[in-house]
Write a structure and sequence with these properties.
By secondary structure, the protein is of the alpha/beta class. It has helices spanning 10-21, 43-53, 80-89, 123-132, 152-159, 198-205, 243-255, 266-270, 284-299, 316-327; strands at 4-7, 26-28, 35-39, 62-64, 94-99, 114-118, 136-137, 165-168, 179-182, 189-192, 209-210, 234-238, 260-264, 277-279, 304-308. 32% of the residues lie in helices and 18% in strands.
Amino acid sequence: MVTQILPIDENSLALAKEIILNGGVVAFPTETVYGLAANAYDGKAVESIFKIKGRPNDNPLIVHLHRDYDISSLVSAQPQYSKLLAEAFLPGPLTMVYKSKKSVSSAVSCGMDTLAVRIPSHSGAQKFLKYVNLPLAAPSANVSKHVSPVSAEHVFDDLNGKIPLILDGGKCSGGIESTVLDCTGNVPCILRSGLVTREMVAAVVGECDEYVMKDGERVRSPGMKYKHYSPRCQTVLFDYNDREKAYALYREKQNKGVRVALLCDSQVARGCDCSCILNLGETEREIACNLYDKLREGETFADIIIAVAPLKQDGIMVGVMNRLRKACG
């Protein structure tokens, strides 16, 4: 199979729609990461996503919609707080989990009675979703457990020859996956942290819980259970307070001729003398935006990436640290 990378225009959208309607898959950009989309009504098409990615079949998918799609055709109940959150944050990097009407393929939710729904804000994603005008099941467009893609080139690196089309919308601005919020209870509950934080949700609706998964429990959201976001080289993570140990390990590996890179934010970078630094940036937004890009950059030349956690770990950094810990196993 030949994999094309095409800019988003009338011709590529027509091709993408043809592929989707014929049971195929298409990679497309969102503001967080690139997604791998299939018609959510088509069970075989949805199952092909799992096969292409090598994704465990008990790890549910998120349905992506354009902003004008009638969500009530897919979910059975929308609590009032979910409507307030939709007004505040959608379109945007927030996925909300509802009780499902089970109108889409059961493969999307891995047989569960819930459905995760997202309305991305990326203009290219909205054009694609509006053009196809179907709910599209879409996890990240990468091989399972590898670093999520934030550019069309990243998708091509993972899925060349496996999919027919990548819609190129440039580098993703968000950089980590959407926040996933369980909206099936009386109070919203975060299943996966992201750019919409617990504090932001609580500011709109008054309160927000955060779910802690128990051993042996079934996965309720993408990104909850399995090792994720891992580069194709060794990785190790040090706490901010242990950064001197990270520097010592860097020097030890370098002296042995090992190709090594230090992954850290600008604050840490200014305080060390390591020669090869994958600098994540200064602000929370910069760090989130650059995390996957720098992990993928590092895997191209390093035998080991030594990561130092930022000092600040609340707000958006909760989601960043979730990804960083999973990336380092």
